[in-house]
Amino acid sequence: MNMDTAPPTVSVCVATFNQAQYLERCIESIFAQRAVLERSLKVEVIVGDDCSTDTTSIVLEELQRQHSDSLVVVRHVSNVGPASNYLSILSRASGDYIAHLDGDDYWEEEKLGAQIEYLEQHPHNEAVCTNARVVDKDEIECGVFTNVASREIDLSYLTASGNFLNHSSLLYRRVALSTVLGLAPPFVDYAIMIALSHRAPIGYIGRPLVCYRAGLPGSIQRTHGTQVQDLYLGALLSALPLVGKDAARKGAANYVAYRFVFALRGKAAHLDGIALARLARLARSSRISLTISAATRACLLAAKAFSTWAARKRRGGPFVHHPRY
Hints:
By secondary structure, the chain is of the alpha/beta class. It has two domains: 10-213, Spore Coat Polysaccharide Biosynthesis Protein SpsA, Chain A (Alpha-Beta Complex), CATH 3.90.550.10; 224-319. 46% of the residues lie in helices and 18% in strands. The protein has helices at 20-31, 34-37, 56-66, 82-90, 111-121, 155-161, 177-181, 189-199, 220-223, 225-239, 245-264, 273-282, 287-315; strands spanning 10-16, 43-49, 71-75, 97-102, 106-107, 127-135, 141-144, 151-153, 171-173, 202-213, 319-320. Strands 1, 2, 3, 4, 5, 6, 7, 8, 9, 10 and 11 form an eleven-stranded mixed beta sheet that branches. The model has no long low-confidence stretch (mean pLDDT 94).
């Protein structure tokens, strides 16, 4: 079959809101994929513009002129939020594979090819993520997204360790699309990863094949930190009854420890007693035991973070945005 008339192999779903200055870099990185240029892969790009108030519409109009046959834009007349924005474009995806990409991130040229090759070699996996380079608004590299090596990520591991998977690296088979579309908004990317890992282990490629922009002024973590942490909690609560006691207790303790750190840094409100009690119950623990475990975990995280910082100062090496200790 001729590639020009064949159905798209990959539907790339890009959600954006007021990211005009980064959007061209994002979209062009899709069409610059080596597999696309070599015509071994065909893509359709579906962009959801969540009622942006900057020049996003102008940027998208120009990109549509350049890629008219492969670029679809869905414009919302009112702000629906990131989760509903993603659902609106995912529902239009027709590819054999579905990829997510946030409008301020972009891909390395080998990304899609490497992931599809991985899934072809691992038929029991339905989804695959990769590591990412962390860059600032000017694309100056400042570290890596995580320090996890290539492996499979099952639900227990993801629950116990917390989310270290980069959302803009996610690719999954069409068979898993209904699971993502079945999520009730609002939700964060951890909920997507939890749902997919419940179906089958997620493959993970340790190579940084995505470029993730960190520290942007308009990031949702900066503007809605408490809401993000509460939605993260919701995802975790859905996973706790599905995993063993050890994974559940570790995951709950990790969350309480990180929530405490976020609160100290002014990035989220403190966790209330009701949420703590629910976490403890689902983790098959007591509030006192969970609090002690979380305090121990917080101290361990602080010690590990300091030793990592000291080693980096002595020997050099990249900053790790979401380390797993």
